[in-house]
Amino acid sequence: MFSLSRWKTTNSRAPNKHLNRTLHLSMKIDTYINPELIKIPTQVYHLESEGFNGVLTAETRNDPFLPLSVAALHTSKMELITSIAVAFARTPMTLAYVAHDLQVASQGRFILGLGSQIRAHITRRFGMPWSEPAQRMKEFILALRAIWNSWYEGTRLQFRGKYYQHTLMTPFFSPTNTQFGCPQIYLAAVGPQMTEVAGEVADGLIVHPFMTEEYLRNTTLPALKRGWSKGDRNPHSFAISYPIFVVSGSRNMDTSALKQEVKKQLAFYGSTPEYLGVLESVGLEDLHQQLHHLSKQSKWQDMADLISDDVMHKFVVEATPDELAAQLKKQFGDVVTRMNFDTSVRNKAVRMQVIQQLTCSSISHFNK
User: Fold this and answer.
1) Which of the 8 DSSP states describes residue 159?
2) pTM of whole model > 0.70?
3) How far is it, in rounded angstroms, from Cα 282 to Cα 21?
């Protein structure tokens, strides 16, 4: 039977004494790609030449894996990341195969970013079971690792959990092209329970874009540290990916339209009960009630109008392109290891400069 302690040993995780060490890292910058398959080769060629470290896909209107299979064949350096694929819409076995294939196609550059989604989508859209999402997700990831161990290390597959059982694997169904090892797993989380699971069994955390610095430091990081402690993990090898809201334009540029689009997104997230804790972190719990009430009436513009500039700035970094990198590093450089955002910078040279400033500078990791 697969055990967590066996996985820790094979992945060389460090004990708890390292939880508070300081490490200097370079930040990685990722970006989402248009999932239209025919456009991907040209698109990823330009993104890689601009210096992006990774490309992302989301599971919304399209499959998250197919675009990355095309990107894998037309890139050589960028990491390929699902951000996110819905774990509970699949079984650990089906996901293990597709993740393995992408790891091989990319020659070791694939990162499997997973998320739980919410009950309604899992049960009513995907027709799959839902219960105890944090506990189920932990078991899902451990089942994935057990399957991969059976392929990469030749261990007998004997995974018996509360939610998933995988006990059959024969040579005919075992991949043999295992030279690139198993993919890393990132887990998307907002609440403390799922965040703790990420720290315990995943290789990285995908922070939700609806985030305040207060929630990140006072709720997310403590939960991660509990997970690292439970799993005897080394935080220095753990990634934190933040898809941050950014409003950026030159000093003479009118950014009101950009702000309005961001406010619409903030209003939507703020109306959702699952994100109430984030609003509470900055004393805006009453705003949630107002937004939730308006959302029931589909008054989307009225919702956006409730987001003042002061409220927006609790969730958004606003800066000119020449100040953007410094501002991002100042606020999040000691916590976040990779970011993705739309800089709204149309000038390629300026955009590349922002990326270079973020990726080349050393940052102090987990030092606050």
Assistant:
1) E
2) yes
3) 29
Check if the beta carbon of residue 335 is closer than 8 Å to that of residue 216. Answer: yes
Residue 349 near residue 278, CB atoms below 8 Å: no
Q: Which residues contact 24 (CB under 8 A, 6 or more apart)?
A: 362, 363, 364, 365
Domain ranges, ordered by start, for the chain: 4-248+319-365, 249-316
Contact assessment for residue 351 and residue 41, using Cβ atoms and an 8 Å cutoff = no
Residue 263 C-alpha from the chain's centroid: 22
Whole-angstrom distance, CA of residue 229 vs CA of residue 78: 31
Q: Could you read off the pLDDT of 20-47 as tens digits, one per residue?
A: 534 435 799 999 999 999 999 999 999 9
Looking at domain 4-248+319-365, its CATH architecture is Alpha-Beta Barrel (3.20)
Q: Give the tens place of pLDDT for each residue, 289-337.
A: 999 999 999 999 999 999 999 999 999 999 998 999 999 999 999 999 9
Tell me the C-alpha distance between 225 and 227, whole Å. Answer: 5
Of 25, 8, 109, the residue nearest 329 (C-alpha) = 25
Cβ-based burial of 16 (10 A; exposed 0-12, middle 13-18, buried ≥19):
middle
Cβ–Cβ < 8 Å for 340, 30? yes
CB 190 within 8 A of CB 119: no
Does the bond joining 84 to the residue before it have cis omega, within 30 degrees of 0?
yes
CA distance linking residue 247 with residue 318, whole number of Å = 5
Please state, in angstroms and rounded to a whole number, the distance separating the CA atoms of residues 105 and 73. 7
CB 360 within 8 A of CB 22: no
Give the integer Cα–Cα distance in Å for 113 and 99.
10
Count helices and strands (H / E) in the chain. Answer: 16, 15
Spatial distance between the Cα atoms of 319 and 311, rounded to a whole number of angstroms: 16
8-state DSSP, 196: H
Q: How far apart (Å, rounded) are the C-alpha atoms in residues 178 and 154?
A: 11
Query: Are 333 and 363 within 8 A, CB to CB?
Result: yes
- The verdict on whether omega for the bond into residue 355 sits within 30 degrees of 0, i.e. cis, is no
